[in-house]
Amino acid sequence: SGINAEYGSSGINAEYGHTDAACPTTQKATRHKLKKTPGGKLVYHYATKKTQVHKCGDCKLALRGIPAVRPVKLASLSKRVKTVNRAYGGTKCGKCVRSRIIRAFLIEEQKIVAKVLKAQASKK
């Protein structure tokens, strides 16, 4: 209680350090709590930042099959874990990829129809 009383907080799980929000020692990366070990010692447990789920670039929905890990951990993962075996795998969801393929196909069909109509009009 001597350590915590100095900062005006109580309990083993109380955050240890400054309470000013603008202070760099209370930023997300430096969050820690005091924990009591089975041996009776007080030790710091450092809290890691929360991870962001990868999202589709078009519809902003969460991508399935891509792990939500911190960037440092992501760099150590193999490529097969970080992507999905598909066109735009790991950046776009399956629904958006499907709609892109259909849109591209319909645009090409529209061009062909326009060309055929133009050829028929020139014959007459």
Write structural notes for this entry.
- By secondary structure, this protein is mainly α.
- It has helices at 2-5, 71-76, 79-82, 94-123; strands at residues 32-36, 42-46.
- A two-stranded antiparallel sheet has the order 1-2.
- Strand 1 (32-36) and strand 2 (42-46) form a beta hairpin.
- The radius of gyration is 28 Å and the shape is rod-shaped.
- Mean pLDDT is 82; it is low at 1-9.
Task: Sum up the structure in keywords.
124 residues, mainly alpha, two-stranded antiparallel ribbon, 4 helices, 2 strands, 8% strand, rod-shaped, disordered N terminus
Query: How would you characterize the largest beta sheet?
Result: 2 strands, antiparallel
Overall pLDDT: 82
Distance between the termini: 97 Å
What is the multimeric organization of the chains shown? single chain
Number of strand elements: 2
Q: Looking across the biggest beta sheet, what order are the strands in?
A: 1-2
Approximate strand percentage? 5-15%
**Number of helices in the DSSP assignment:** 4
**SSE ordering:** HEEHHH
Radius of gyration: 28 Å
Outline:
rod-shaped
Query: Which bin fits the share of residues in helices?
Result: 25-40%
In brief:
This protein has 124 residues and is mainly alpha-helical. It has helices at residues 2-5, 71-76, 79-82, 94-123, and strands spanning 32-36, 42-46. The chain starts with a helix and ends with a helix.
